[in-house]
Specification:
Strand order of the largest sheet: 2-1-3
Shape: globular
Radius of gyration: 11 Å
CATH architecture: 2-Layer Sandwich
CATH superfamily: Ribosomal protein L30/L7
Helix content: 25-40%
Structural class: alpha+beta
Length: 61
């Protein structure tokens, strides 16, 4: 069974670069304090690295 990650937006995307806003959208996050569950893949990890200052990540079993 693949690992899962809970990704939560903790800081606002207002005034951020367009690439960062689009990355949040690609992760499935639409608004503040929203959490999404994603598979732990290299692609998702790369997206998280792009917006690591805006999100909080934790592993889910």
């Amino acid at each position: 069974m693949a690992k899962k990650l809970r990704i939560s937006q903790r800081r606002s995307a207002i005034g951020r670069q367009k690439r960062q806003k689009l990355t949040l959208k690609a992760l499935g996050i639409r608004k503040m304090n929203q959490s999404v569950i994603q598979n732990d893949t290299p692609q998702i990890r790369g997206m998280i690295r792009t917006v690591e200052h805006l999100v909080e990540v934790e592993e889910v079993s």
